[in-house]
């Protein structure tokens, strides 16, 4: 534990905290980033903001400038703030480096008009799983009816201008959000009322359109980080670096975009990166960042650096990076370091994920953009209310070879011959092959959408099977013949019946059970051709209903007659074969009530003994 002196000393030597933005779609993640960045007003460049590869860097002066109304001048100790710039791609926010979180903290965006949404909860669970601290941005406050805009103002100042109605609506919605968080087992509170930071998560009301609350959000992020994460944020020589993305860039070949969390990288460093075909040992040819005046995603002119110090996002060019795996750690081989040892370390991340594949060898094939997102997805698929087994994994775009691997399930379990593609592209050849082989590809960039799609697919398969087997399935029922309701004795037999048990359906083969010399004998009567209830034609009838049925002999030569082959005291029961029972169990089990299923088991047993 550090004493005051120790903390002070360390605070002199901090790196920038790394922050990511998460939340449900359309809550305003992109807009919030734009607003923090100030892209619309061009003040970005002036304030020294630099756009990096996949991130934006806010230097301390810029944060000071923007938070001056909060009188926080002396309180900012970190050199800046690095915000990972990929909202919507939760795959990036689950990135890790050396087993710990890559992001030091997160902003969880919630739309004040909508409260917690499915993906908010998904993000929340990810953050909790990773033990990542976060701040809730309660966004879109300007949408409260009657809101008076005060551009870029601290939130308390902005609130002072609002009418009592706006404040009331705000309070109601805030309380509701706090309650919803509570339902998720989490204490939250407005940040300026929060006396137990750490135990209780802070909420900062914001507008990404007019900028209210943005100063508060920036200051809180920085202050909280430097207060509670001194150890993690202390600049170290030991390298901590994670591969964000593997990309082919014209003129540079395959490059890797990395987040340098701690330490420094130099041109000419010998590095090891985890590759899908084994460890990659190579030398850094160049360290690149976008030209300051260029828009982030414009690829072209890059600035070259001889040395880069944490925290930064950079592009590395080097030879042999084709099979690098996004989401894994990058290692620099020091002068006294053993290359073989470094190679082993480099592959550890990948191996720990490989161990999560289902041992039975039966399951779906999962493909994700980074190791981190793959881990998150595997974690989700394993959770108790999901439980989808996984037989194989891949990282990066879906290629033909992945389809081949998924296709191995076609023989064993058709529904598992499926690729769950999470936030990755599918090559045209892969799609074509999948179509030809009958492998299903399900794509999504939100985990729970993938889950919904897979469930939808399972349902479709089930429906298909039902259709195929519809003419062979037999539902269990026991019928009593009603007195004075024999309308036709034969050809066809028409009777009034009482459904004593089970479910009566059109198409069911009916039989009579007779005991002859202690031997049970079944006599087939025919199939139910139609059912009428109160003179209306129906498809089925359930227990305790009284209906009229028409029975037609299954084979023309085997016609039976009421009064001769059977009588008023005989019970009619559905005739099960073991095949029809199997179909019932496989495809219709969940449609039957408990009693109906009990009856099915009873009847099946009876016919089996015969
Ligand atoms: P994302 O999907 O979370 O990245 O959401 P976007 O940033 O794309 O925003 C979704 C929509 O909400 C866009 O039409 C934005 O203009 C709008 N929006 C975002 N933030 C705010 C806000 O604070 N106030 C209002 N009124 N609209 C917002």
From TrEMBL:
Query: So what EC number does this one have?
Result: 3.6.5.3
Class of this enzyme: hydrolase
A Gene Ontology molecular function term for this protein is: GTP binding
Location(s), subcellular: Cytoplasm
Q: Which residues form the Tr-type G domain?
A: 14-230
Question: What broad class describes the main subcellular location of this protein?
Answer: cytoplasm
**What keywords sit in the KW lines?**
Cytoplasm, GTP-binding, Hydrolase, Initiation factor, Metal-binding, Nucleotide-binding, Protein biosynthesis
* Cleaved signal peptide residues: none
Transmembrane regions: none
Cellular component aspect of the GO annotation: mitochondrion
Give the family from UniProt: Belongs to the TRAFAC class translation factor GTPase superfamily. Classic translation factor GTPase family. IF-2 subfamily.
Name under which the protein is recorded: Eukaryotic translation initiation factor 5B
Task: Please give the organism.
Answer: Eutrema salsugineum
Relative to the complete UniProt sequence, the shown stretch is 477 to 1086 of 1086
